[in-house]
UniProtKB/TrEMBL annotation:
Substrate binds at G99, E100, I101, M102, R121. Mg(2+) binds at D122. PANTHER family: 4-HYDROXY-4-METHYL-2-OXOGLUTARATE ALDOLASE 3-RELATED. This is Putative 4-hydroxy-4-methyl-2-oxoglutarate aldolase. Keywords: Magnesium, Metal-binding. The keyword Magnesium applies. CDD domains: RraA_family (cd16841).
Length: 230
């Protein structure tokens, strides 16, 4: 990967492998976040325009000044099929940084989806389409295209650190980012977590409504006396 931090636009990055992206995409963002230590989730203000939208892929990171989308256009030009563009828009919703035209360009280019900590517009068209867009809000006002930004530099999107090539997974619950070097381990843990939760749900359906750990934790915080049980 290029290490010249004087470049505003870094074209060549190391990405999480397609095989790991495919493996991770099978899990809910919530499962991945749990096994990642309940870290890496983007602020809850960043939501899919439709709860049916899902996305998974390596991060193309973008940093912009509030209200300007010039660097996002640069990211659209260099992103590769399967990438997810994730934008640090500072949570600003005073104007939209993306709409139907840019989303169409991204879809036709094979970009897997867009996560943007800022507002978008053309919500009716985008929410009723099949292209994954996650945003912090809506606003009909358009952006400027006159301020330099950064593409494929480390960013903080919705309070979460994101490096180029990290894994980005989003669904109805929101977005989680997994560091590229940690994805294989997280996928393995996610499968174990899913197996455990599946077994727990099956047990509940069979009449076992009590969580096995509950009494112990209640005693640990003083809600039950030692030896006492619910």
């Amino acid at each position: 990967m290029s290490t010249d931090t004087n470049q505003s636009i870094i074209r060549d990055i190391d990405r999480v492998s397609p095989e790991l992206v495919e493996a991770a995409a099978k899990f809910q963002a919530a499962i991945l976040a749990d096994v990642a230590g309940r870290r890496g989730t983007v602020h809850g203000r960043v939501k899919p325009l439709s709860p049916k939208m899902k996305v998974a892929g390596p991060a193309i990171t973008v940093e912009v000044r509030q209200g300007d989308n010039l660097a996002i256009h640069a990211a659209l030009a260099i992103a590769k099929p399967g990438d997810v563009i994730i934008v640090d828009g500072k949570g600003d919703v005073s104007c939209a940084l993306l709409g139907e035209i840019m989303a169409t360009q991204a879809k036709v280019s094979g970009i897997a989806g867009i996560v943007i900590d800022a507002a978008v517009r053309d919500a009716h068209e985008l929410a009723n389409g099949d292209y994954p867009i996650f945003s912090a809000g809506l606003n009909p006002c358009g952006p400027t295209k006159s301020v330099a930004g950064l593409v494929n530099h480390p960013i903080c999107a919705g309070g979460t650190a994101v490096n180029p090539g990290d894994l980005v997974v989003g669904d109805a619950d929101g977005v989680v980012v997994i560091p590229r070097a940690d994805v294989a381990r997280i996928v393995e843990l996610a499968q174990k977590k899913l197996d455990s939760e599946t077994a727990r749900i099956a047990a509940i359906h069979k009449g076992d409504g009590r969580a096995g750990w509950l009494d112990k934790e209640l005693r640990a915080v003083g809600m039950l006396a030692e030896g006492e049980a619910l």
